[in-house]
Amino acid sequence: MKHLLKYIFLLITICVIVTPVEAKKKQKKSQKSAISKKKTAKKKNKTTAIKPKQVNTEKVNLKELLNETTVTVAPTKSDSVPEKVVTILSAFKPQLKNVAKIGFVNATANVDTTAVYLNYQVPSQNLSFEYRPISLVPRAIVHDSVVSLTNITNLKIGFGNYSHQYAQLGINTLDKWKNTHSITLFDEASTGTDHHLQIIREIGAKYIGDQYINKYNNIQTQLFYNHSQRYRFGLVPDASKLPESNYEHNFEHMGASFALLNTKVKQRLFNIHPIAKFEQFQGIIDATNTWYEINNPMYFQFKNKIKFNLDISYSFNQYNPTGIIHQKNTILRGDPAISIEKWGTIIKAGASPVWVNKDNYQFYPNVHLQKKLTDTNYLVKTGWTTLFDNTQYTSLAIQNPWVMPVADMKITSNEKKYITIEVSAGKRLDYSIGVSINEYKNLPFFNRILGTDVNTFGLKYQAIFEKRASTLELDAKLRYQFSDKLLFVNTLNYKQFNLIKDNAKPWGILPLEVNSSFNWLPNKKWIIEASAVYWTGAAQFESNNKAYDLKNFFVLNAGFTFKLSSAWSVWAKGENLLDKPYERWAYYPSLGAQITGGIIYSFRK
User: Fold this and answer.
1) Buried b / exposed e across 526-553, counting CB within 10 Å, b at 16+?
2) Which of 278, 324, 363, 421 could form a Cys-Cys staple with 292, CB 3.0–4.6 A?
């Protein structure tokens, strides 16, 4: 019995080993026969169609049927240019089967094994198609200056005529928590040749940072300090021997701002972006100004593109014209509104309750409509709103650097009705034009102070608050950008006063101002910049109480930077290249053509 089991086991083992070998031999023979059949089929005429194999309809494999479908292209016999004929032979033909049941038994299906030939006349031009890709225009990527220049330090030094000296140190770094920091220190000074008191010096520092709290929230911080040193040289004889302290007109300005940003705005129902600002200003004769503002834009964003705004802002300004007198101005404002976006239109309707100095309460409309015209590149914006400015000694000194402290600081308001049309004329050109009707209250004008000893103390200016003024203003902008190589921007502002209640003319206000800027990067080494400004002269007082307009002027500036290596660059800048001194403020002429050049040294960590 044991020997019988051994023989059976040996027989099974031999069968298992021999069976795969025989299968492989049969497979090789079938492959050789298939190859030989294909070679013989190629020798036949192309017009001959291959008949399908008979298929057992009881067990049909769809993949095998699809693989057996053949398509042949055969030229027709003609004396003219032959056309292409496509012969489609299908091995699977739909059948109408008798599915009637007799005695609950399925009827036998009739099998149709005849081949069906279909001939299609295909034009030769449709046998091949050319792929024509659409034109691609590269768009400029606007990089953040802090992020793109991380861990880089730049030292910029330059000298020019009028004893012009310029130095700037810039540090951009990225810490281990991926927070960006940018620090800039600068010192600039120049001295005029026509007057020994025509001296200007600016010293300042600025910090910009972006600190991440978590994955979706970050705080943007800005700190700055600026010291301005100059002298009131207007109408002062150059031969004056009086001490320079009589004409000193120095300012110190510092401030900070903090903004909370959230990058997950679209996924949140309630969004809030608080912004806090603080500024401290010190002028002449110990006049100071402390100002801070809290702006809190917040809104509910619903899925059906309906937004409910609950914006709130508060501004506080403490102005001290002397060491004894103190004046405080406050503005508390709310902007509740509903915004709906439907059919390419944005409609915002709301109201703005405003409390000025706690006692004065006013209620103003806040309406905005934005519509994109159908099948055009025109975007129309119109609205009615009221703007408030808690006027500071700081803002007055920025507009007119020769202004003296005012006795009574006013809050300026502007009720504005506007309409603007924005046009996108292609992928590179955008322009817009807008018209607005403005009703100002306490708008500051600037005029010279008469009756003072100009030779001893220099020419001084004062701020005059106009109780009521009505203007028609035109604003236009044109912007052309070609990739990241070329940028051309133009702005225009025209202001026409239709009503002035107290003053004869809008003293010190420019009727027309046109600004243009040009930036060009021809290659990786060159950076070319240019700018132009055109102003029409503002109205001023003469010493005999007669009004006149200052002359119109045109200022052209240009400059370049050339990269010598990865660390060294040279730069040059020309200001007022037409060499025509102008007067923004009467009897305070600017310098002539000023050329400055220097080097830039950059290094990385």
Assistant:
1) ebebbbbbebebbbbbeeeeeeeebeeb
2) 278
